[in-house]
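Hey, I was hoping to borrow your eyes for a little while. I've dropped the whole record in just underneath, so have a look:

——
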Amino acid sequence: MQFAIGLVTLIAGFALAAIIIWFGEFQYVLQSHKTYYATFRSAPGLQPKVPVRRAGIRIGEVQKVEYSSEYSLVVATITLDGDNILREGDEPTIDRSLLGDTYVDIDTRPDMQGVKDRPIVPAGSTLEGVSPPNLTKTIDEASDMVPNANKTLTQIETTAKAWAQVGDRTNSLIARNQEQIDQIVRDAQITLEKMNRTLDSIDEVLNPETRENLRITIRNVRDASKDLRPTIESANRTLDNIDQLAQDLKTVVEPFKTRSESIANNVDVSLANLNPTLIDVRAVVNEIRNGNGSLQRLYRSDELYMNLDAASVLLVQNLAKLRCILDDAQVFADKIARHPGELGVQGVFTRDKGLKEVPPGAVPRKHGFFKRDRGVVPAACPDCPPTTAPPLSQ
């Protein structure tokens, strides 16, 4: 009997120990887990033993919550049970249930949702968490917005009344001008029909061939505009030169501008003096044209003109002959200068060399008492025939 009681007591003790291990702290010791750190700007209701969930499923719990005065942040130590891990893009978020229980929800950022094979965040890493909204501050802001909302509603009501008045006036206007409005509608329908026909005509005109020609024309215009660019640049340079020329002319004209009055007076005086002179010249011209004097005969007589023309021709011919005569005189003077003894009888018997040197290329004379050659002296005038020197008197 005592043995049975002891055996039951021993079995009950083992069962109690198993229950304690399963539901107590020893379960955490026996399971594998991963530790992460989450930072929050504010963490209302967050404390140890708060569950950590993903999509509503418990995957761990908060082990420790402390405030970092160095960074002014709340640091929560999170442990994940079993094979649960965090990947890049996961954010710890403090949330509340409908009954007011606080928990940490592991949510994925929208830009990382649906991304396959996201990198695993190693255990011991620190993640930036999302704090819950401050309901008190939100309520205060909403309270501050209530007067503005009331004012806006009042304005909307006033605007609605104004639009109601506009609608009443519009209905009254439409009722009074129903016939005109109907006519405008009919005219609009006719205009739309004409526009449709016009668009159909344009579509018929703009067939594929016409469109291709239009495309080619536009391309040619674009190419021509490129070719016109140098011309436009040249025109711009020309305009710049014209502008510079205008500036130079302005500089030149500026002194005359200051003396314009005196210049105008001088021009008036000059014109006044020129007018009698022109009158006298006109009178002289009329006298020559209409009179019977020598000037009129010189102006009108063809015979006098012919005589003057003939005299000028004779003068030209005589000048040519005179030139030849002067050339012969030059030859004769040169010959006497070379042999001055030939002027007398003594020159026949006595031959001298002359006062000048014999010119190069001259034909030497044959000496004799009674026989002398008549050397041919080259003419100095190219237009005259060679001149034969006349014999000198003895």
